[in-house]
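Retro notes, item 3 of 5
We never archived the inputs for the nicotinamide-adenine-dinucleotide complex last cycle. Fixing that now. Sequence and ligand:
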Amino acid sequence: MLGAGTMGHALALVFALGGHRVRLTDSSAATLARAPALMRAALETLIEGGEAPDGFDAARLDAAISTHASLPDTVRGAAIVVEAIVERPDAKQALYAELDAMLPEATIIASNTSYLDVFPLIPERRQAQALIAHWYTPPYLVDLVDIVPGPNTDPMVVATLRDLVAAMGKQPVVFGKFISGYVANRLQSALSLEVNRLIDEGIATPEQIDLSVIHGLALRLPVLGHLMKADFTGLPMARNALANRTYTPPAARETSPTLEGLLAEGRTGAMSGRGYYDWGGKSPEDLFRARDRKLIAIRRAMREAGSMLEFTAARAGR
Ligand SMILES: NC(=O)c1ccc[n+]([C@@H]2O[C@H](COP(=O)([O-])OP(=O)(O)OC[C@H]3O[C@@H](n4cnc5c(N)ncnc54)[C@H](O)[C@@H]3O)[C@@H](O)[C@H]2O)c1
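Structure as it came back at the time:
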C-alpha cells in the first residue's frame, strides 16, 4: 500500500480485514507513524458495530499490517501494489517509474485515483498489469469500488481485482474505459458545483443545504438510486423537467470564494475542528468515531431493507 494518508491507511485496514497481508509506506514519516493508531481506532468502531470479521482484533491487525520507510521494502514480494498517494500526475508518474525498476512483470498496479487518467503516466510495459481500483472514504464502510481498465489492461487483471474486491464483501462496478470521476464522483462533482453556487451567491447556508440533502434526498437514494426513482415518479415528469428548462446548471468554476475564505482561516475540515461548520473542539478521533457509528447504523438498515433493484426483471432472474 503506497500512501498512508486519508485513504491509504484505511485501505490497508480494508485489505487486512479481507484476510490479506499488507505492507504500508508513505513518503511522510509523520503520516506513516500516525497510521497504526488511526487503523486501530477505526477497527475498534467496526468491532463495536459488529462490522469486523469474527475474532478480528487489534493483535490480528498488527500481525497483518507492517509499515516500512522504504519503497523497495514495501513492494518486495507483493502480488498487488495499491497506489494511494497524492492526487498529482507528476508525483504518480515518478512513482510508477520507480516501481517499474523494482517490480516483477506479474505484479498488478492498482491506482486509487479519483479523477486522473493515470494510464499515460504508467510505463508502457506495465500497462497490461495496471488498472484503477477506486474506493470511497471511509472504504471500510462504503462498499463501492470502481474498477477501470486502461486501453492495454489484460482482462484477466480486471477479473482478478473484481473478484478480490467482491471476496472482501465490497461492490465492484467494472467500467469499460476511463472516464474522469467514474459515475459516483461525477455525480458528487455536479452536486458540489451547485452547492458552491448556492453558498457563494448567498442563496442558502451550509445548514440549509445539508438539511435539504439529509431530509430531502437521502432517504430514497439507498432504495431507488436515481433512475429507479425516475421510474417511480414517472418518465413523463423527467421529460417535462428537461423540456421546461426549469433548471440551469451553474457554469464550471475553478474556485469558490467561500471555500477560499474558509481555507485562508485554516478551516480545513473535521481534522482541524472547523470547516463549513465549527465542530465544537472535538478531536478528529471522536468525530470520526461518531461518524462511523452512524454510518454503521445506516449500513445495517440498508442491508436489511435492500433496494428496489431486487424487483427489476434482470435481478429477479426473469
Ligand atoms: N480522500 C478521499 O476521499 C479519496 C477517496 C477516493 C480516492 N482518493 C484518492 O486516493 C489518493 C490519495 O488521496 P488521500 O485523500 O488519501 O490523500 P492524502 O493527502 O491524505 O494522502 C496522500 C499521501 O501520499 C503521500 N505521498 C505522496 N507522494 C508519495 C510517494 N511518492 N510515495 C509514498 N507516499 C507518498 C503523502 O505523504 C500523503 O500522506 C488520491 O489519488 C485521491 O484522489 C481519495
